[in-house]
């Protein structure tokens, strides 16, 4: 009876090992086969963006876009890098393209709102902030602590919700009493990456 148990145990061990090898092989194959075109350039763009090398980020995102012009994350990365390079009109086109491709992509609305905010078009910025917050309530929380660590940001920057509330309060004041832009504070507004 003990030999039968040992034999059964040995068979079960061999089946378990075979299943682990098959499952691991499947995971590796699935990862490789589902890797989208341009993902390496997109990752390089994200790294350069985090390092504030916006020109390098733009070039990396552009290479990724040339390989995969349907990916909203790549398109939005292009738009964000152009925004940081102060190429607002070109940036707007890419934000609008990302929104056209995915009308529920909240970071594109949030970042386009930041761009309009920087340009001084506060009404348009408020509309876009509201739309982004409707689509993704997590944007209300602002920058995650891990992102702050990666970007080396010490203080908690204002969220788009904070900025929206501030702008709404300012628009309740008489026009001559409004303070819509404080450059030292406004430059701390991060853009949103997903």
Set down the secondary structure blueprint.
Layout lengths: L1 H32 L5 H12 L3 H14 L4 H13 L3 H14 L4 H14 L2 H14 L9 H7 L8 H12 L11 H4 L8
Helix pairs in contact: 2-3, 2-4, 3-4, 4-5, 5-6, 6-7, 7-9
Structure, described:
70% of the residues lie in helices and 0% in strands. It has helices spanning 2-33, 39-50, 54-67, 72-84, 88-101, 106-119, 122-135, 145-151, 160-171, 183-186. By secondary structure, it is mainly alpha-helical. α3 runs antiparallel to α4, α4 (72-84) packs antiparallel against α5 (88-101) and α7 (122-135) packs across α9 (160-171). The chain is elongated. The chain folds into two domains: 1-34; 39-186, Serine Threonine Protein Phosphatase 5, Tetratricopeptide repeat (Alpha Horseshoe), CATH 1.25.40. The chain is built from ten helices and no strands. The mean pLDDT is 85.
Task: Give me a quick take on this structure.
The protein has 194 residues and is mainly α. It folds into 2 domains: 1-34; 39-186, Tetratricopeptide repeat domain (Serine Threonine Protein Phosphatase 5, Tetratricopeptide repeat, Alpha Horseshoe), CATH 1.25.40.10.
Quickly list its features.
194 residues
Q: Overall 3D geometry?
A: elongated
Calculate the terminal CA-CA distance, rounded to whole Å.
60 Å
Q: What is the percentage of strand-forming residues?
A: under 5%
Report the average pLDDT across residues. 85
Task: State the helicity in percent bands.
Answer: over 70%
Task: Supply the number of structural domains.
Answer: 2
CATH homologous superfamily (4th level) name of the largest domain: Tetratricopeptide repeat domain
How many alpha or pi helices? 10
Question: Could you give the order of the helices and strands?
Answer: HHHHHHHHHH
> What is the CATH topology descriptor of the largest domain?
Serine Threonine Protein Phosphatase 5, Tetratricopeptide repeat
Structural class: mainly alpha
> Mind describing the biggest β-sheet?
none
């Amino acid at each position: 009876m003990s030999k039968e148990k040992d034999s059964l145990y040995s068979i079960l061990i061999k089946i378990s090992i075979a299943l682990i090898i098959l499952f691991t092989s499947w995971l590796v194959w699935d990862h490789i086969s589902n890797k989208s075109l341009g993902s390496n350039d997109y990752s390089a763009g994200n790294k350069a963006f985090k390092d504030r090398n916006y020109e390098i980020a733009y070039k990396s995102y552009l290479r990724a876009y040339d390989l995969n012009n349907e990916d909203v994350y790549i398109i939005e990365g292009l738009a964000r890098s152009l925004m940081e390079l102060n190429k607002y009109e070109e940036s707007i086109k890419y934000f609008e393209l990302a929104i056209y491709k995915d009308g529920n992509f909240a970071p594109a609305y949030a970042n386009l709102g930041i761009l309009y905010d920087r340009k001084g078009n506060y009404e348009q910025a408020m509309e876009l902030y509201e739309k982004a917050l409707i689509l993704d309530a997590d944007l209300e929380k602002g920058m995650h602590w891990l992102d702050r660590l990666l970007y080396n940001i010490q203080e908690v920057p204002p969220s788009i919700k904070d900025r929206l509330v501030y702008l709404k309060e300012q628009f309740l004041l008489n026009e001559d009493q409004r303070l819509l832009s404080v450059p030292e504070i406004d430059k701390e507004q991060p853009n949103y990456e997903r």
